Amino acid sequence: MKMGANPLPIGHSPDSWRPDEMTAPESPVQLRTYGVRGRRSAIVGLGAHVPPRIVSNDELVAMGVSTSDQWIVERTGIRARRIADPGTPSFALGAKAAAQALESAGVRPDEIDVLVVSTTSPDSPMPSMACRIQNLLGAHGACAYDLLGACSGFLYALSVADAYVACGAADTVLAVGAEVMSRMIDWQERHVSVLFADGAGAAIVRAAPPGAGFTSWCLGSDGRGYDKVTVGDVETGPYATCEAAPKIDMKGPEVFRFGIDMFVRQAEALTAAAGTRVSDVDVWVPHQANRRLIEAAARRLAIPLERVVVNVDRYGNTCSASIPLALKEAVDEGRISSGDQVLMVAFGSGLTWASCLHTWP
């Protein structure tokens, strides 16, 4: 198929469409970065919530997963994860994290102009989770909608928040990442069941004080990797049958390599765009996909591990909730101070990637 051609011309039968005809040749993807010009925005409040139930590696083994604590720790660094009780909606976790963020920022619900929710595990096709969270918070009248960026999603939501505030369209934006990944796990598939978990995180974004805020972004995707991490049949759709909830399928080794590569390339591109160096970053907050992946990327960048926030060992991979969970924990522990350069970096299904550099207020 020629580049630029209509992939499904008029009169072409959808039944005869072949996905391989849409796959472009493999080639390196050029990362796109941009610096923030004019008005800056900043994170002024954070919130996080995880279910109380802790599931250890040994408990997974007791559930019948063909694995061991040693196997999981050696390959992922994960020792435990939080799992929601059956029937717990994603929006309930998101609302609790959002309420914390509001309290942290000293913001009333009626001051929220826009509410953007990132989720890979929505409770229903509609209404949006954002509207459910808005209702629980009492933020009536605010623009509220969801977006899907998988594990990159929270940074996508933050970029939207930054854009609203930077252009003057909004004064206060609430970004939320909320997931109940456990309902999409096949508990007999050890490569998936040992990784994913449940949780939520949130951030309030407002105009930044002088010298603080977001300074540069790197956002992108490569649909050639659409089949690397999926939920349901990617050709017929995840809701093609209703016998059971669609489950996560992942090509682990390929995603692992992609994650390391995108961590490193984004860090180099982002710091260059900001006119700084990798060594100048004070605190690194990566997507909590896998401890071994994070360690490998840190070695390639020559980053001291004490500068990298890691909590995947206790919470597992919470998808779009992982960065706000790690960020809030770092702030609560005093690891981030005013004036610190904080680099957040993520990658996910799609394939997607996102990163940003933020000078802490």
Quaternary state of this entry equals single chain
Shape: globular
Q: Return the CATH class.
A: Alpha Beta
Counting DSSP E segments of at least 2 residues, the number of strands comes to 14
- What is the overall number of helices? 10
Could you name the CATH homologous superfamily? Thiolase/Chalcone synthase
DSSP strand content: 15-25%
Report on this model:
This protein is of the alpha+beta class. The protein has one domain (30-361): Thiolase/Chalcone synthase (Peroxisomal Thiolase, Chain A, domain 1). The protein is built from 10 helices and 14 strands. The chain has helices spanning 57-62, 69-76, 90-105, 129-137, 153-166, 190-193, 252-273, 291-301, 312-315, 322-332; strands spanning 33-35, 41-49, 54-56, 80-82, 114-118, 143-147, 173-180, 198-207, 213-221, 229-231, 248-250, 283-286, 341-348, 352-359. Strands 1-9-14-13-12 form a 5-stranded mixed β-sheet, sandwiched between helices. Helix 3 packs across helix 4 and helix 7 crosses helix 8 (291-301). The model is unreliable at 1-25 and 238-243 (pLDDT under 50).
